[in-house]
Amino acid sequence: MPHLQRRELIQGSLAVAAIAALHSSRSYAFPTRPGEKTIEWLDKIPPNPVPEVIKNQLVWEELDSWVTPNDKFFSIAHFNRPVIDESTWKLEIDGMVKKPMALTLADIKARLRQETTFTIECSGNTGLPFFNGGIGNARWAGTPLAPILKEAGVLDSGIEVVFWGADEGEITRADNVKFKQNFARSMSLAEAMDPKNILCYEMNGAPLPPDNGFPARLIAPGWYGVANAKWLKRIEVRDQRFENRFMGRDYVTLREEDHKGETVWVESSVGRARLKSAPARVTQVGNKYCIVGAAWGAPVDRVEVKIDDGPWLPATIDHTEEAEFAWKMWSLDWPKPSAGEHTVTSRAIDKSGNIQPAMSDPWIAKKHTYWESNGQVTRRIQIG
Fold first, then answer.
1. Were 315 and a residue from 132, 183, 227, 303 both cysteine, which residue would form a disulfide, CB within 3.0 to 4.6 Å?
2. Closest to 107 in 3D by CA, of 88, 95, 90
3. Mean pLDDT of 326-341
4. What global pTM score does this model have?
């Protein structure tokens, strides 16, 4: 049943009845039907060869809640995973500012509290054979970043904001120069001043877990995970664009683009999240099956599902819980599928009409790095 828009609701005394009918007939993404079981995918994900880098990947078949619990939330470590003493930690705000600051965690918590529900995805998710669970949805809480930058007084020459993490490691450049560097990512000043950005200290009602950035991290709704710097130690305003390993050499997407019949090779730094969806699991009760999945990365309007080489079928989006930057859960009833092996593919369409690209689309097929892999996800399953 398509989602019923407010303007379509019956006016007057029939409105309440219409809402009740909608509620009773809606298909929910997480049903609890008696006897329901999950059918495992045939295409198993290979073992993770870098468990020290990638922790706690989402197991799609086990997806059973809109919010991902903290103990099941993925994390990425580019260097070490620092252990930080809250009692001595301070966040420096400096660089091209009139009034440098050093804030304790108590200082940050004493400021205006702001919450956001945001689905974070690693930009490398589904770009590597062993990596398809680099995503999770959480309720984040902290204080808005923009007022702090305003209070520090950004100078007219300040154009870039760099977020420095406490995690560090040794870098070896192509010219064989070696040096120690902290993780750092930057945004333009205008991007950093977005009122949705928060200095986050809380995740799902609890302090940030150590692996997810304790004591404070940036939460920038709408950006890929790498931009949401963890274990913050310093926020620096600079008067020129910032380039480092994680801006100009790594987390760089290489694509072939066509320009008047000529191939142009373009490199771009990973930034904002892209429209995406994925089938999560197939459940069974008797001879009735249901396909469940998620869509995220842009304002999602609808989701369509294709079984084998059949037509695209409209999925039902679960509107039980929603937030602007959180994933949407969807489901599709699959009555009496034939026995044997099948493929299940999903695609999301955003509110501007953009369609999640197929793997054969030039946007994906002519991409030569695993970052920003938002192509349609196909899973294989055995019925009967």
1. 303
2. 90
3. 96
4. 0.91
